[in-house]
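Hello again, I could really use a second opinion on something today. For a while now I've been wondering how a particular protein folds. Please have a think about how the structure follows from the sequence. Here's the protein in full, and shout if anything looks odd to you:

***
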Amino acid sequence: MVVGIKLGVLGGTFNPIHLGHLKIAEVVTNEFSLNKILFIPAGQPWLKSNSTILEAKHRVEMVKLAINDRVHFKLSMLEIDRNGPSYTVDTLEQLHQYHDKVAIYFILGWDNLAQLPLWHKPQRIIQLCHLVVVPRVDYPAPDLTYLEKKIPRISQVTTILNSPHIDINSSVIRKRIRQGLPINQLVPKRVYKYIIEKKLYQ
């Protein structure tokens, strides 16, 4: 049982993981003096059920390759191993069961915070974690006054960061691969090699 840790949580499809994800994790780790950050690939994202998402084994392997030399970054298989849709609230509940007196810092983008009222049990989510909100290019900063009407007390557990500004997007990376354009400056070297070797997203 781990006691009294400050745990960052960065979830997503990681389809694929890119340098922006790593930069965000580094900034949040330093900003909040976190003990570690869990990278949690989604199993079956309920808000993206109609999207074409690469099978889990490849997304997991790319996360492993991206973070394997960073001591504070860890892979979690919670959502991959759990049956059914991947709900954030279930993941947070599980983490509290696994860790005693843990403080969870859940990382999401400006765009995702705006959608939080549509998530499963948003009121319970803000009871289980502190929200750390990072900029998303081409999206306005969130309006906490509006969100407070939808999710009371959200402003008390939310920190909105103004950096880093990450101009990298997984969907753009996939599109560039299909178009035969280079992506080696957008993803970690090991991830780039894996994508090329496995001929992913072509």
